[in-house]
Amino acid sequence: MFGGLPELGISNGEDLKETLTNCTEPLKAIDQFQMENGILLPTLQSALPFLDLHGTPRLEFHQSVFDELREKLMERVAIIAEGKDEDRYRKLEELLEKSFPLVKMPSIQPVVMQVLKHLPKVPEKKLKMVMADKELYKMCAVEVKRQIWQDNQALFGDEVSPLLKQYIVEKEAALFSSDLSILHNFFSPSPKTRRQGEVVLKLTQMIGKNVKLYDMVLQFLRTLFLRTRNVHYCTLRAELLMSLHDLDISEICSVDPCHKFTWCLDACIREKFVDGKRARELQGFLDGVRKGQEQVLGDLSMILCDPFACNTLVLSIMRNLQELLSQDALPRDSPDLMLLLRMLSLGQGAWDMIDSQVFKEPRLELEVVTRFLPAMMSVVVDDHTFTVEQKLPSEEKSSLSYPTILPDTFLKYLQENRVACEMGLYYVLHIAKLRNKNALQRLLPALVETYNDMAFSDIFLHLLTGHLTLLSDEFGTEEFCSVVFDGFLLTSFSSKENVHRHTLRMLLHLHHKVLPSYMETLTKTLEPPKQCSEPVKELYTQLMEKLEAHKKSPPPTDETPSLDLGLHPVTVPTTTSTPTTPL
């Protein structure tokens, strides 16, 4: 416990033991030991007997003096370090030399740690000693650990790895959240709120102002993104940079070539829209990538691959298309739309670019603009025409039924082109948001075959299930259930467990709206096989419990219809209110 004292020429318990073993008069020896090792202050010697009279043990007195002096010394270390004295760090190094042998002594350790913390460059030898001792390493301030980490990528990786895992787990939990709503979904939290997450804050603190550590974290994120294709690593890439931006860490922000681009895009994500002014700013950054600096495109593509950025771009594209439609203008004539497509394309190509290390903007297939978008717009026109025709006298109607087939071009691009597919999926969400049952029934079956199975990705299914709450009353019809379940979800639930989970999530909220005979079939179909994961089994059990409870309490027949806005389920009073004022 008192190791290190003899090195400094200070007696310890072992010395006292030796003295007492070899002496003839123990009491004199104890007095002598106290004189030599007590507080060397002549005036104190005469005062100590007073303490004895008060029954205060010497240990208690020395301990309180020691604690007081330690606090003063630690304060002094901080004052020296923050001062302007040119040789302040030399003074601290001298103090470190004197105190380091006592670093394992619990009472002195805080002083040594304080000195280490305030030295911008701890001597290599001392860092190695700290690193070799697990206990010491654990006790170190993050300022000291940063100095250790910057030359030990593996050790830093061990520290960062659990945080990155935790981040992905949190994102996936949000996508499978039991909340099902159009108002509160995965994309609802603002960028600033997201940056207050535990992982982002911890990583920001671990990095401090250290560019080398920041680069290491980015390298980890790129590697993990390549290994897993998980787009949430792209979100963290952007959040981390913006978190350092919030703290004004110019040492890092000024050297990250993506800083201004990310900052501008962050403002768009906050508004969930890319306006004309910001679009031109973003275009300026993309056009400004000079020869020899193309590697920055890899990082920019990762920033654009972040689902929050992608969501903002596609929502902006949808708004642009609506405007073009109202102006009778063609997509190819809109520079704003072309830029949004260019950025969407760059983001969608992030993995290929980083994997191939060929840093070149992917070429946007022009036919996406000249053939796919017009085909998608023709679906809008069909819908509009049908609505108008319904208002005409029957002899003037050209067709009485709603169109069911989709243009071949639309289907082809949905299956073969990533950018087109992303827009097609968001168009389906747009239709659901408008509560347009006819158009939705026409489009959903087309999503069974999409590029890379994008329609069965967690993000899309999370959004779609939330949007379908707006059409909850339609689930009372065989036709609508058949399209949503048989025509889409059930086509892949047995091979894709995530589809199974999202289907059960939705039914937990809407089971009482689903046609009872259909619900019965669904419960049999969706029963989890033995080898499936716990979350699926858990959801299924919850669903069965809800159905059981629902059977026991049948709703009153005169129930007031509830207006389902995709909010949390609210019970509606069942008594019909009578007007209190005379009519």
Protein topology:
Blueprint: H1 13-22, H2 26-37, H3 42-53, H4 58-82, H5 88-99, H6 109-118, H7 124-132, H8 134-139, H9 142-149, H10 153-175, H11 191-194, H12 198-207, H13 211-228, H14 232-246, H15 250-253, H16 259-271, H17 276-287, H18 296-305, H19 307-326, H20 335-348, H21 350-356, H22 366-390, H23 408-416, H24 418-433, H25 437-443, H26 458-468, H27 478-486, H28 497-510, H29 516-525, H30 534-552
Describe the 3D structure.
It is a single chain. By secondary structure, the protein is mainly α. The protein folds into three domains: 5-126, no CATH class; 152-366, no CATH class; 378-388 and 404-548. Helix content is 64%, strand content 0%. The protein contains 30 helices and no strands. It has helices at 13-22, 26-37, 42-53, 58-82, 88-99, 109-118, 124-132, 134-139, 142-149, 153-175, 191-194, 198-207, 211-228, 232-246, 250-253, 259-271, 276-287, 296-305, 307-326, 335-348, 350-356, 366-390, 408-416, 418-433, 437-443, 458-468, 478-486, 497-510, 516-525, 534-552. α5 (88-99) runs antiparallel to α6 (109-118) and α22 packs across α23 (408-416). It is elongated, with a radius of gyration of 35 Å. This is Negative elongation factor complex member B. Pfam families: COBRA1. It comes from Anabas testudineus.
